[in-house]
Amino acid sequence: xxxxxxxxxxxxxxxxxxxxxxxxxxxxxxxxxxxxxxxxxxxxxxxxxxxxxxxxxxxxxxxxxxxxxxxxxxxxxxxxxxxxxxxxxxxxxxxxxxxxxxxxxxxxxxxxxxxxxxxxxxxxxxxxxxxxxxxxxxxxxxxxxxxxxxxxxxxxxxxxxxxxxxxxxxxxxxxxxxxxxxxxxxxxxxxxxxxxxxxxxxxxxxxxxxxxxxxxxxxxxxxxxxxxxxxxxxxxxxxxxxxxxxxxxxxxxxxxxxxxxxxxxxxxxxxxxxxxxxxxxxxxxxxxxxxxxxxxxxxxxxxxxxxxxxxxxxxxxxxxxxxxxxxxxxxxxxxxxxxxxxxxxxxxxxxxxxxxxxxxxxxxxxxxxxxxxxxxxxxxxxxxxxxxxxxxxxxxxxxxxxxxxxxxxxxxxxxxxxxxxxxxxxxxxxxxxxxxxxxxxxxxxxxxxxxxxxxxxxxxxxxxxxxxxxxxxxxxxxxxxxxxxxxxxxxxxxxxxxxxxxxxxxxxxxxxxxxxxxxxxxxxxxxxxxxxxxxxxxxxxxxxxxxxxxxxxxxxxxxxxxxxxxxxxxxxxxxxxxxxxxxxxxxxxxxxxxxxxxxxxxxxxxxxxxxxxxxxxxxx
Amino acid sequence: xxxxxxxxxxxxxxxxxxxxxxxxxxxxxxxxxxxxxxxxxxxxxxxxxxxxxxxxxxxxxxxxxxxxxxxxxxxxxxxxxxxxxxxxxxxxxxxxxxxxxxxxxxxxxxxxxxxxxxxxxxxxxxxxxxxxxxxxxxxxxxxxxxxxxxxxxxxxxxxxxxxxxxxxxxxxxxxxxxxxxxxxxxxxxxxxxxxxxxxxxxxxxxxxxxxxxxxxxxxxxxxxxxxxxxxxxxxxxxxxxxxxxxxxxxxxxxxxxxxxxxxxxxxxxxxxxxxxxxxxxxxxxxxxxxxxxxxxxxxxxxxxxxxxxxxxxxxxxxxxxxxxxxxxxxxxxxxxxxxxxxxxxxxxxxxxxxxxxxxxxxxxxxxxxxxxxxxxxxxxxxxxxxxxxxxxxxxxxxxxxxxxxxxxxxxxxxxxxxxxxxxxxxxxxxxxxxxxxxxxxxxxxxxxxxxxxxxxxxxxxxxxxxxxxxxxxxxxxxxxxxxxxxxxxxxxxxxxxxxxxxxxxxxxxxxxxxxxxxxxxxxxxxxxxxxxxxxxxxxxxxxxxxxxxxxxxxxxxxxxxxxxxxxxxxxxxxxxxxxxxxxxxxxxxxxxxxxxxxxxxxxxxxxxxxxxxxxxxxxx
Lengths: 620, 620
Description:
alpha+beta; homodimer
């Protein structure tokens, strides 16, 4: 069971196929690990992220395309223009499976096209085509045009948008204009290469070793998801808004607070009552957790772009002080239309709002906008300005880390980023493991690189997974003992596995729809390999270690594994008022983590650890 | 699912029960890990091994007693009088399951009885009884007497023999007078405590969570073992003699050679033709790999004591240059009768033979015996002298390390031991992973602490297990690369797991009778815990780490993880003639292993590794 990879050189207009031998396919599996493999092998350290020399990898995986729910995610990875380090982002949807059906597990993009282009893959027919006519088009427009060109509405398109063309540093990649490879600025890299989209039509069969077993797993999933995960169909990720608010860790007004007075107005249940038009899902998945919202009111929200996830409601909503779900939905529409990561976008705006309220920015600086917390119209307008790099939007398009340099030294205190990437919508003061994850994540603050911690609001699923790994005593969300470090270390491997074999966290989490056991069964049934949980978890560890090595090559140091000062201050409100993270203990915990991983005291993986993971070829 | 432990203080004549809470039972599981738990918690570092202050642990495990083949082994552990470090030895047979049926998972023995005693356990009735009438009796005699006393031939007896009473440093513990906890001198510790035997009659039910699943596994095993492992029934471990001879690594004449000219005369097939009377097995096992031999010829071999295993044939046979299977069988009978470890006994005799041939020992020193290699009669007589500490036997009873001190400095070159324990019958020059194992094993040279390496003669089963763990490229037996270190490190965890949950290597090895998958199924079915392969392998790692910590507390250093000089010299004969182990590379490989394990450069586990394994309470 070997795999094919497309290698596309935009500078030379050259397309080649590379075969991954079965042994390497089993070693790297896809997604995060496979993408890291190419980045470590082929990218020269020190390369400027937005230069033609950067490499951009689209990596599906060994499972994707098989008709089982929860395994559709694929990775886009590159050197990140936000962090200057390892960048990756995962997305579900339909594109990953389509690529597999076309016969490829991954695409590696090199160089830069002279003019805007897109890549067209029709099974084994692959060509670069001019995208001159697509320049500046919204993501939705682009999809319609390409599908019309080929008269095939089943074409799946991964693209960056106008924001990517403008190299907004947190431009994202989207498929079906709503499933985002959100973080790390992968859309900016795509834009820097003059590659607007990759359109795929795949009609091939997906190889499966044991069709009977696959049928059995699929049937089991379809029979059981309603009992296990109905809430997720009912409310989607927005269901988390009220839970996090009640726990006191819903980021509010640029992380100044942990509760939001309008939380119920922007909640999942409110969405169901007001804007929800329908529910959509990913390839092969019955849960349909994705929201589709519509409004013909003040903001005219276009359902083509889906609806806001929890992270988007947090970043454009509570974190900007905006309690208007319609404004948030419009903001979501614009982010998807222009190709912006909603998290970084929201945090960039909330940062500007805080600067405005503190007098660091004047109304002149904001091009006349009253950029107060809670101003939904200003929030929506700012998204447009960022995407098109207009006025202050041009500065915020650089991300809060660089914008703060522009705004002056006081502003730096309000720039909520780690390693240059804006912080997602989980305040770590109420779940310390998330704090470790934010600090350690190779991509900077990133909830997809960060396993969930046992939290006050979860339903025990974190500890369900942990118990399979031998951690069966529930740890307090506020605990930052060495046992929390251990829990984090184990779960992180599992999360990195998900990012490698494309498992949807929402399928894997709740009471075991895709439990560790099921993942072993599934991987065996698909591949025929006698793969075990041990090997799978080690693959997750491998992915994380490769990303770490990438950053070390780029000069990252242990000091980069740090939270912004604000998160060490006590929470100011809500049930966790007064709760902080002890900075000394945090630093010590990070060091403990290094040692647990087989890294040295500076966070550099030992040669022996690399050998254990068969990464002896990695040069750090 | 909690467990009960008997705590028996011989000094105070006090017997207590201790409950292990379910969480700790799951953490330590039994065997090696559970015994280490007690030794680390309760034994003062620096205690003299043969003093009343030493502690002796008999530890069955969470699986034992369930009517499934291959899970009967139990551990005897203590501070070893051979090495002064961690001592443990496993035995199959019938005693472990019987203890479980009596309601106990383990027994911890403290102090020293005034006079020889034995412990009598009849379900929950436990008492210390005088063994005055058993003093000096052979193991067989003792069994008959006790069974007659209670008129119950189903009583299972673990005992040391006359050699244990005399504190021969490598006296063993035996059950049914033929299943030996052979290594580490556990019988000497038992003798030092004036405890001759532990007789058990258990009639209780063994708790099982999922009886249906257990039935299914049992049925599967019974239906499949013949296809998978018939050779083992047919030839038992003696089947290995010819394989190892053909590979050139059958220890011969005190490890001077790797082939033996009379190998076929002492082989498994020869045994079948000549001395084999019947085949016997362990509790619940259909394979019956144990040999029972009989002879009314020159040596009159009593079938009560079973027959020689491969290790015994190597140590008393080829390694003493003895090509007479009847003499070897007699030697085996005597070792079992007196309670001597056959490996250490054979190596002690071969050591004396080499000293004799080299003129270090005179005929006067040997009490008139012509102690040449190949003298079967002298070998047999030496066993008796060692067991009863007669003449030169009294010196050899101390083990080769101490005997060499007696015999003078030249003799030290011929003392084939590691950490004070004699080397088993696998020459590591033809399988380097075994060399690593010998060096690293916490008990000194020990084939039960040492995973098999891919060898020239195996049938791929080592790589079968390795492949489950993600190592699926077969490594050469002579390879000592970092990938061999990794293979060793992974397999060692598996072996330590076997020593912890009582898995018989011969059931686990060949093509998966008790494959890693089956072990997970089985452990889940027995316990009802959602335990995974990850947790099981981590339990193996935990056991090994605890033993390492024990040794560190006792002052062991990295220099102790070393092979004797002879094993670094080129092999002198056979297909591997000229093959050596490169000493520098070996030392480097050991260091690589330390780092892979999360130990420091001196082989001391990092605090963070202890935390990961929930061993933060261990004080090193």
